[in-house]
Structures are given as C-alpha cells and as structure tokens.
Amino acid sequence: MTAQHLVSLRDVRLHYPVGGTIAALRGKTTVVKAVDGISFDLTQGESVGLLGESGCGKTSTGRLLLRLDAPTGGKITFDGSDITMLRGADLRRFRTRAQLIFQNPFDALNPRFTIRSSLNEPLENAAIPRAEREDRIVAALELVRLPEPAQFLDRYPHQLSGGQLQRVVMARALILEPAFVVADEPVSMLDVSVRAGVLNVFREVRARMGLTAIYISHDLALVRYVCERTIVMYLGRIVEDGPTEDIVRDPLHPYTKALVTAVPVPHPDQSHEPLPIGRGAPDPRNPPSGCTFRDRCPRAHSRCAAEAPGPTRVGSRIVHCHLYDPPA
Q1: CA 54: distance to chain centroid?
Q2: Cα–Cα distance for residue pair 197/317, rounded to 1 Å
Q3: What are the beta bridge partners of residue 77?
Q4: pLDDT at 269 over 60
Q5: N or C: fewer beta carbons within 10 Å in the chain?
Q6: Which DSSP string corresponds to 185-202?
Q7: For residue 250, what is the domain's CATH number?
Q8: What element of type H or E holds 183?
Q9: Contact status, residue 66 vs residue 9, Cβ threshold 8 Å
Q10: pTM above 0.85, yes or no
Q11: Where are the alpha helices (DSSP H) in the chain?
C-alpha cells in the first residue's frame, strides 16, 4: 500500500451459507460467494465505477467497503488502518469518514421526519455542537444545489420530488464531510429528465471536496459520465479493471465486450451485433469450475474449466482471462 491509496482490498470474500437450519443439520448447506477473492486499490480523489449485471457482487462490495457487512476473509484497509475487525466506537468513527448515497431516495428517509430532522440525525450522532447544526444543514443543502434550502427544512419527504429527495439524501451523506462515498445506483429510481442534474451535482461535489468515490451501476453510459476508472465484476469476481475510456473503446475481457456491445447505439444508420455469450448467468450456488464465465464465453477452452484466471496486466488494465495469461 502506498500513501496515495485511501482504500485497499486484498483477497476479500463475502460468502453466505444458504439452505436453512435443517439443511445445515443434514450437512447440505451450500454457500453463495457474493464476493470471491477481489483485490484493488482506490487512490485519494479517484472516482471508480463498479459495473456488471445484477448479482455480480457490486453492491456487496460496496457494503464491505463501508463495513456494513463483515468480510468472510481477506483484508480491507482505509487510510492505512485495517477496518476488517472494527467494532463499537472505532467503527462509528470510521463511518463519519465513509458514507453511502442510497439508491432509492423514497426509502432512504424516514417519512415521519422533516428534512431538518433527517439531516440533524448524523450531526447528533457525531456529537456536533447544537449551535453549529442549523448552519451545517443549510450549507449541505446549498452544496447539492437545492434552491432556497430554508424552504425545505420543515417539509416531509412526501412533499418533495424525486430529484429533490435524492439531493437531500446526497446532502445527508456529505454533511459530515467524509473522505469516501459509495453511491449505489443513485439515479436509477429517478425520471430520465432529472438524472443529468443529479449526476452533475455528484461530479461537482466530488471534485470540490476531493472525494474518493465508488459508483455502483449496471449502466455503462452513467459510469462513463462520472468515473475515470471502471472495475467490471462477474459472479463475485473482478474480470477487468482500467481507465473507463479504454474499457469503452476497446474492451478486452469477453464479458466486458458483451456489456459494451449491448449498449444501444442512438443512430439509425449505425449498429453493431451483440456478442453471443450463451444463456443467462449460472446459479450462484453452483458456479462453473475455473473461470466462472466459461459456460457463456464464445472463446472458452479447456484451461478455462481447469483453473480460475489470475490478474494479468495488459497496458493500462488488469484483465482476469486466460486469453491474456499464457500458461507457464
């Protein structure tokens, strides 16, 4: 780890036993590997997209980064300190520096709380002096460009639009001035007409505060708009990691190529054929041996079934694929 790395993950895993008590007593419990041995670093001030289909492990990774879930194995380091085993007051202090921007603003706020109360809660939990709280609440709403913020303080969530609510949710995540945020598909519940405004605010605030950010999405176009770097995941593993523009213009891993070619082309005279990747994703309780993508991959060969590919550097990127990893 270098001094520039705010967050580092090394061989991090998050496994869930499934099957219930009876299955466990019979020795038939299976394990879902939501995150299965991932490693990467986040540089201070960097914006990184986590991209992949539903069930690929991107939200589970975000929860691990915030220590909302404890990892099954591996190590997570934040600002030089191991957060893997944090408990109690130490965990609460960490969470003042690492915050979540929720996906659904309609569920993220208590409907019985006014906007003032919702924004006051993190300040109260962090023991911010009462005399400072009102100014910090107004400043947070101004930061996310909510016009005339004073008029919203005594309103309830149902009295705001979706775009306004998402800005309030963003303000609540930023009110303690964190160093790191995880944004979990923060515009997926909003109308297309208001998404651009919220994304612009996200970009502006991140640049102004020097935030390190993880942006979780299945939408390549949104990731391209807000992230300099992209990590592509499939069934709990990383398959490609590199500069977003490089990945969009010249994807290397067959799965990444399928994601890129699946993006609609907004021009009637320009089209491309989607890459054939076979059937849908396999049952996560019983993934394929070796490379978990091999049963959908048009370029799979015998080695793919025998061993999982390790990380291979190809130019500016890290790719987990035997096509770029010649046998020893």
Answers
A1: 12
A2: 31
A3: 8, 82
A4: no
A5: C
A6: STTTTS-HHHHHHHHHHH
A7: 3.40.50.300
A8: strand 180-184
A9: no
A10: yes
A11: 20-25, 58-65, 88-95, 105-108, 115-125, 130-143, 162-174, 192-209, 220-226, 244-249, 254-261, 302-306
